[in-house]
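Honest question from a wet-lab person: if I give you the sequences of every part of a complex, can you actually get the arrangement of the whole thing, not just the pieces? Trying it with mine:
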Amino acid sequence: MSLIVQKFGGTSVADPERIQNVAARVVETAKAGHRVAVVVSAMSGETDRLDTLAEQFGGREENPREYDVLVSTGEQVTIALLSMSIRQLGQPARSFTAAQMGLRTDAAHSRARIERIDREVLMATLEEGAVAVLAGFQGVDAEGNITTLGRGGSDTSAVAVAAAIEADVCEIYTDVDGVFTADPRVVPAARKLERISYDEMIEMASLGAKVLQIRSVRFAMRYDVPIHVRSSFHKGEGTWVVPEEEAMEGLVVSGVSFNKKEAKIRVRGVRDVPGVAARIFTPLSDVGIVVDVIIQNLSQDGATDLTFTVPRSDYARALQISQQSGESVGAEAVDGDDEIAKVSIVGLGMKDHAGVASRMFSVLADEGINIQLITTSEIKVSVVIEEKYAELAVRALHAAFVETGAAEPQAE
Amino acid sequence: MSLIVQKFGGTSVADPERIQNVAARVVETAKAGHRVAVVVSAMSGETDRLDTLAEQFGGREENPREYDVLVSTGEQVTIALLSMSIRQLGQPARSFTAAQMGLRTDAAHSRARIERIDREVLMATLEEGAVAVLAGFQGVDAEGNITTLGRGGSDTSAVAVAAAIEADVCEIYTDVDGVFTADPRVVPAARKLERISYDEMIEMASLGAKVLQIRSVRFAMRYDVPIHVRSSFHKGEGTWVVPEEEAMEGLVVSGVSFNKKEAKIRVRGVRDVPGVAARIFTPLSDVGIVVDVIIQNLSQDGATDLTFTVPRSDYARALQISQQSGESVGAEAVDGDDEIAKVSIVGLGMKDHAGVASRMFSVLADEGINIQLITTSEIKVSVVIEEKYAELAVRALHAAFVETGAAEPQAE
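Yes, you can. This is the full assembly:
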């Protein structure tokens, strides 16, 4: 008998029929002799409906506390309906709001962090043989105010519950079969990974792979919760997200990803003196623009270029702000480009294999693709290139690193 | 400065525009220097929408606990939106679910009774100068399970809150101007009462007047909470529901009401021995049929007739059950009639004035209306007559008792 947490997102519970499908899956697991806690999101469309209502009255920005009171009703509806559906199949079930399971967070509305969960109340229900049906996304702060974890927060709820009850696995049900070495729509040869490490998953999530919320993976890593990303449509194995020592499939590169949602801004010829970077980036963060890649070349003659990327949706505003800041620090010019793509390779194997980055550059050069920016971490290399080459680059890198399996990369 | 509880029902908060109207009214009261707690229902239509969802999974009957989890989201949405709307008008406001205000009930799902409210948490908010926006209809039991008070329970929530914080008044906003001496659609001469006693209001509610839920009036009477029933469309005074000693307008009869939603069943020629009534009525209560008026004549030759009324919607079933029971107790015959109406006069003055009942019978006789059944209480006389005479009877009784003012009734 295992202790299993199952998480189903909004599209899996979008209507009564799909809720019945989820119930059937849960009951099957319970009847197989396991103890099951299910974490669910709001029925898809529901959060948008509530959001539209809130917009009539100033929305989330003006009313952070009341907005969370409002949108948390979405998950409360789902837990009630799913509990009913499970009970209809003859399996005892009991729903829990965040308050009822003591899911305590800090007081940061709309982006709260989980602090603790009342393990006892959940275990009492599971030990009675009932399925515990839990509202994802929501929490309560120390004062009893309702909080929410931010969109996609149900993944984090599920992992936190799994950690609290020391579950054997946290199953995340999605509309894909698992985590792939690349987007199968772009790379037909992409294959599903059997296992991936927490670190790799975090890098891939930060690069735009949407199967898991990045915060939930960090949480799982910290509390050693094995995650199983699997399909809600069939019963085959998906991808296990596990500690590094269990993750090795012998691949140097586990995944190739790309992201077309960024834009590039270049501040040319700024004096290389302390405080310049702060004067460029502070005005951007003041208006909530998140800067991703930042590159500063070594200075020549006391001047340097500063290049960075921002979300493409913020491009126009970021360019305007940067032009003002550039002027105030005496930059020669500020320009930008929103037809770029970021292409990345991710793999634990890079730690032990020299030359992965330079081989990546060779592969791109062989395809005639010019590299504009480069950033690296211990297990990732990202390059910024012209947008139109994104798919070509991904396919070439996938062929060179993944399809050749675990082969030692060529020497430099 | 007064401490005021205001209650708005589902039609008053049916859409964003109406919520804004309610917010304006609340803010006006607060700006006038009063402390305000507002109790609201779900937006109209919302409970039905949730009910329809629940029906897919066995509904309330099969899932009393989860049904309450589901439908209580309706009020939670309203408190969030109304708080936002009040804040938009520059007035601080803070919403409270039942759990947050410690509105504790017993564990009877869908018909829970209020046991206590956390006075301190509400007073702290009111003393800060913020409006407390409270979810009606819902509660939590001692285990933290969500309960509901039954449809119309928001009236009771409002009165309970008013009692807990010792409010100066509990204002119930409705789509009528107050409590009338008769239904103005039937009796053009009907007039709004300035004041009515709790007892009279309870009788009138039990007779079908829909302005207040009967349980809320009992609660108000027990805790001496003055209720002000008033229009949500304009600011004129409505009707005050108050203790008997403050209620007297000098009227013998305060109201004339009628009810066409009942049917009559007669069990003829049953032996007048102990246990017969139980064998007739137990099978009815076993299936949840509520019997209203019961009449048993004195027996002649050891046999008697037993006549009673049931809700018209239960008539067919009640007749069938009664025919079986009648057979088993050796009744001569069981028949019934669903074309009846109950017409009642209500008034505290009856306590001190003899002959009100017989004058009522004379008034009806003068109109050629035959009386089928009679029941009386200390402050009420009800008669059952042919349905087609209902409006005629109401108008005649209103003319005789109300339009003549406080005149002493004719001697018998």
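Two things worth pointing out. Chain B has 13 helices and 20 strands. The mean pLDDT of chain B is 90.
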